Amino acid sequence: MKRSITRIVLLYALLLALAAFALEWLQYTYYTKAYSFEIYVVLIALGFAALGIWVGHRLTAQKARGPFDRNIAALESLGISGRELEVLEALAAGQSNKQIARTLDISPNTVKTHMARLYAKLEVNGRVRAIHEARNLHLIP
């Protein structure tokens, strides 16, 4: 008797599951017909987003770098002194003029003088551009 009850329960469960599946399938087909344009737009957008992420990752992948090798020839050709290089390294570390002055034990006006000379030698007109140009020339890591 227990087997027949179990069979009936399983049969009804299967029928209810099939009915629920059929209703969900009907709802899915309705939505795909009613909103087909929007669904295609979303699928295309997701495809382009995935492609953009993949291309961005491929183009910006950084290779492992070895130890930093300073470009001594560029330092000499630009005429950058050792103290100016120290100021440039502190600048790249994100220090303000006052912090650079305290670190190097010089006055803030001297820091400004070194910075003005660095800008002239690197042919730039700002802190960010000076750091960018120095990194391009391999003067700082």
Question: What report would you give on this structure?
Answer:
- Helix 4 (82-92) packs across helix 5 (97-104), helix 5 (97-104) crosses helix 6 (108-122) and helix 6 (108-122) packs across helix 7.
- The mean pLDDT is 88.
- Helices cover 77% and strands 0% of the residues.
- The chain has 141 residues and is mainly α.
- It has helices spanning 2-34, 36-60, 72-78, 82-92, 97-104, 108-122, 127-136.
- The radius of gyration is 34 Å and the shape is rod-shaped.
Helix and strand element order = HHHHHHH
* Residue windows where pLDDT falls under 50 for at least 5 positions: none
> Architecture of the largest domain, CATH level 2?
Orthogonal Bundle
Oligomer: single chain
Topology-level CATH name of the largest domain: Arc Repressor Mutant, subunit A
Topology (SSEs and partners):
Elements: H1 2-34, H2 36-60, H3 72-78, H4 82-92, H5 97-104, H6 108-122, H7 127-136
Helix pairs in contact: 4-5, 4-6, 5-6, 6-7
Offer a concise description of the structure.
The protein is rod-shaped.
